[in-house]
Amino acid sequence: MDSGKSLRKNLLELLDGGHAHASFDNVVADFPAKLRSERPTGLPHSAWMLLEHLRIAQWDILDFSRNPKYVGLKWPGTLARKSGAANCHGMEQECQGIPR
């Protein structure tokens, strides 16, 4: 097997095989709706803010990789949506755009 194929196979195993981390779906499966926009005591971000950061960062990485005229995003600026409970209507819906 050539080194490129071997590297891709190894990377996929690390990401999908459950060896390196818990799966995203398992982590958010039963996350209580009332806690999605709450910042835990002593921590700077809510679960919603972290999810929003993932969504924006993944979009930005793809744009950087595909767009020859890429211009970096200013964070957080106007990119982050409000983290209030009204905007946390469903992590499941928000997660649909996150590649797995």
**Distance separating the two termini:** 25 Å
The count of DSSP E runs of length 2 or more, i.e. the number of strands, is 0
How much helix is in the residues? 40-55%
Radius of gyration: 17 Å
SSE pattern, N- to C-terminal: HHHH
Largest sheet: none
If helices are DSSP runs of H or I spanning 4 or more residues, what is the number of helices? 4
- The whole-number mean of residue pLDDT values reads 77
Integer tally of domains:
2
Structure, explained:
It is a single chain. With 100 residues, this protein is an all-alpha fold. The protein folds into two domains: 1-29, no CATH class; 31-100, no CATH class. The protein is built from four helices and no strands. The longest helix has 20 residues, at 47-66. The radius of gyration is 17 Å and the shape is flat. Mean pLDDT is 77; it is low at 83-89.
